[in-house]
């Protein structure tokens, strides 16, 4: 069970969430922790020489990461214990030509990334972060990360006096109503363009760079309110991007604690919230190509996959006390009652009875409670990287996650104990003594 006297795990999680406002920052922070723990970086464009007992990581697009421990047990009989999560979250992204001016205010053109709840984005202290691609003083194209950190933007609500139906019937037009305010313009004074502001920010964060011109960027807005433990007993964890940086962090900490007896892997993919169809997404070839380089011979690789199992960790819907009727009466997960096995008859989740049985066994070994989620039969079900990874790679997969409120909001809510519970189960998974893919 979770030791309530120690908050070290949650402190680390809160720090990771605060330091990872975009998938680029999340991947960089994951890679930094792996490197600090002795994992060696791999470059996809170079020749690899992977050896039993070695620890490695590889990154693609600066936003997806694989961490891997090459176990000393033979993989073709022992398999690979895999955990998958995703680095992206729904948000507002800045458009390529974003500079807007209206009624004496400088604004930004934005588009909605993923299935975001839009109403919570109003009246928040917003900052900006992401990747900037630029030409340096020698004419080479390079990229760097920026994070403004300070609140530099806001999307103000329309006063109820001007929208009397706001509390009864309210729809949001993202093109018209979401462009955030940056500043008040001064008549006759030219303001720097957004690209010029990015150049200044990049140089402020990395003064040693030579930046001739910002050529392009991938910038997201985010809420500056820091993650926190809240509630009368501080038994809730509130933060942006819990879906799904919480799972990335939990999987990372379990991998860092794994030994080199068994082969263990963590993959954190980008672009899950928009379908995963990219070179670095779960529907792309990143994991498959890693496994092909790890085990080049096809028949041996098939034997490895047959003995392997993937746990897809992505947050689950906790039963909301104000909206309990949105859940099946027998499948309403509660916060702080343990991780959730996610099941769907139409394969929106990849869980099978064999996979869920293994997860229950792992939970018993860890002395951790487990719950189950199934959608109401009259409601559509979301999905994860689980079915995608299972279909693309051919590895048996199950879907799990910690119960969460307000999923896809600018600020989500999870239980204080559930991340640590999942961490304990994944620790058991990474040292499970039998081939996890073979019942």
From TrEMBL:
A Pfam match: Peptidase_M18
Family matches, as NCBIfam families: PRK02813.1
Lineage, highest ranks first: Bacteria, Pseudomonadati, Pseudomonadota, Gammaproteobacteria, Cellvibrionales
Classification via InterPro entries: Peptidase_M18, Peptidase_M18_dom2
GO biological process entries: proteolysis
Record keywords, A-Z: Aminopeptidase, Hydrolase, Metal-binding, Metalloprotease, Protease, Zinc
Protein family per UniProt: Belongs to the peptidase M18 family.
EC number: 3.4.11.-
Keyword Zinc applies: yes
Name of the protein: M18 family aminopeptidase
Species name: Marinimicrobium koreense
Entry's transmembrane regions: none
SUPFAM superfamilies xref list: Aminopeptidase/glucanase lid domain, Zn-dependent exopeptidases
Entry GO CC: cytoplasm
Keyword tRNA-binding attached: no
GO molecular function, one term: zinc ion binding
Cofactor: Zn(2+)
């Amino acid at each position: 069970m979770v030791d309530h006297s120690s908050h070290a795990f949650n402190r680390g999680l809160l720090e990771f969430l605060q330091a990872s406002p975009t998938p680029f920052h999340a991947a960089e922070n994951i890679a930094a922790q792996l490197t600090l723990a002795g994992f060696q970086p791999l470059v996809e464009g170079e020749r690899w020489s992977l050896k039993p007992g070695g620890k490695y990581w590889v990154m693609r697009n600066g936003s997806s990461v694989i961490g891997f421990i090459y176990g000393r047990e033979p993989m073709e009989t022992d398999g690979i214990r895999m955990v998958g999560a995703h680095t992206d979250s729904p948000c507002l992204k800045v458009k390529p030509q974003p500079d807007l001016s209206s009624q004496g205010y400088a604004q930004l053109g934005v588009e909605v990334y993923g299935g975001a709840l839009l109403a919570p984005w109003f009246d928040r202290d917003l900052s900006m972060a992401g990747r900037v691609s630029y030409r340096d003083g020698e004419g080479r194209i390079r990229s760097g990360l920026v994070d403004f950190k300070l609140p530099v933007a806001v999307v103000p609500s329309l006063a109820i006096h001007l929208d009397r139906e706001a509390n009864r019937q309210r729809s949001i037009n993202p093109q018209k109503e979401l462009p955030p305010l940056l500043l008040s313009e001064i008549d006759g004074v030219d303001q720097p363009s957004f690209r010029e502001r990015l150049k200044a920010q990049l140089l402020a964060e990395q003064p040693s760079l030579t930046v001739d011109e910002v050529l392009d960027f991938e910038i997201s807005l985010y809420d500056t309110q820091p993650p926190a433990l809240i509630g009368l007993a501080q038994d809730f964890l509130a933060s942006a991007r819990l879906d799904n940086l919480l799972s990335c962090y939990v999987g990372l900490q379990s991998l860092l604690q794994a030994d080199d007896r068994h082969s263990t892997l963590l993959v954190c993919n980008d672009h899950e919230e928009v379908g995963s169809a990219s070179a670095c997404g779960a529907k792309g070839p990143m994991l498959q190509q890693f496994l092909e380089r790890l085990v080049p011979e096809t028949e041996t690789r098939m034997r490895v996959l047959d003995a392997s199992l993937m746990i897809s960790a992505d947050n689950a819907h906790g039963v909301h006390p104000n909206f309990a009727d949105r859940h099946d009466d027998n499948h309403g997960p509660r916060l702080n009652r343990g991780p959730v096995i996610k099941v769907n008859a139409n394969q929106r989740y990849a869980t099978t009875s064999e996979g869920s049985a293994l997860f229950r066994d792992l939970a018993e070994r860890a002395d951790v409670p487990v719950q189950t989620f199934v959608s109401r039969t009259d409601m559509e079900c979301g999905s994860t990287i689980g079915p995608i990874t299972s279909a693309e790679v051919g590895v048996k997969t199950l879907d799990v996650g910690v119960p969460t409120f307000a999923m896809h909001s600018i600020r989500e809510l999870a239980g204080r104990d559930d991340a640590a519970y999942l961490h304990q189960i994944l620790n058991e998974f990474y040292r499970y003594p039998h081939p996890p893919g073979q019942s």
